[in-house]
Design goal:
The protein has about 220 residues and is an alpha/beta fold. It contains six helices and eleven strands. It has helices at about 5-10, 40-45, 75-85, 100-105, 150-160, 180-190, and strands at about 10-15, 20-30, 55, 60, 65-70, 90-95, 115-120, 135-140, 165-170, 195-200, 215-220. The strands form three sheets. It has a seven-stranded mixed sheet.
Length: about 220
């Protein structure tokens, strides 16, 4: 889909940053799951701004100059937030979502001063050599819902992450249909190769957190 076609089918979701600026994310009225800004993406985007990562008055900015890769970026909301905080970001998703990603990158370009952001195609489970060396951070928001994507997603995480990579995964726990089974499969497979630390709500953004939305820090087993 071309960028102008995307524009005509979209409305804007705004994410207020702590400095008063606004990340504007276009999402589509119609389309697959990748066309929507999910709640977990907002929770993760705001988590990147919490004082442990970003506290300008104390001279803290973990994101400055860090290499960040977002998987299943969809609208690019999380990656855009990281880029506005100074990270060098690559947002990835399937070919059909590239136009939407490009539109949102263009929309927020003026907020991205010291950071950078580019969109690339990445299909889970396939070749990842163009994304080497391993990024310092991998971000994933609400990507655990298709049974057939569990194995390729974990495979991609294994291939993309190095010993220093921190994977930050945010997902909404869902109790309907196949969701519990898919989540269980994902974590069983993940824990064969990675350690997972759940982030308590007091370390998340006080306004943008929810009991059924979980944030995990995931690292390769040594």
């Amino acid at each position: 889909m071309a960028e102008d076609a995307v524009e005509s089918k979209c409305f804007v979701r705004e994410i207020d940053k702590n400095d008063g600026s606004i990340v504007k994310v276009k999402q589509c009225y119609m389309g697959d799951v990748g066309c929507v800004v999910w709640d977990a993406a907002i929770v993760l985007a705001k988590y990147l701004e919490t004082p442990q990562f970003y506290e300008p008055s104390a001279g803290v900015n973990v994101w400055a100059g860090r290499t960040v890769l977002e998987l299943g970026a969809g609208t690019g909301a999380v990656g855009l937030m990281a880029a506005t905080l100074g990270a060098q970001v690559t947002v990835t998703d399937l070919e059909e979502l590239q136009a939407l990603l490009r539109v949102n990158i263009e929309e927020n370009q003026e907020l991205i001063r010291s950071g950078s952001i580019t969109a690339k195609v990445l299909k889970w489970g396939e070749d990842v050599s163009e994304f080497f060396p391993p990024p310092q951070y991998i971000l994933i928001a609400d990507c655990i819902y298709y049974e057939q994507s569990v194995v390729p997603l974990v495979e991609s995480l294994k291939m993309l992450s190095g010993p220093e990579t921190c994977i930050i995964c945010c997902y909404e726990q869902r109790t309907e249909g196949v969701n519990p089974k898919v989540e269980r499969q994902f974590f069983e497979l993940l824990k064969q190769h990675f350690t997972c630390e759940e982030i308590s709500s007091d370390k998340q953004d006080p306004q943008f957190s929810s009991p059924d939305i979980h944030i995990l820090h995931i690292r390769r087993k040594v």
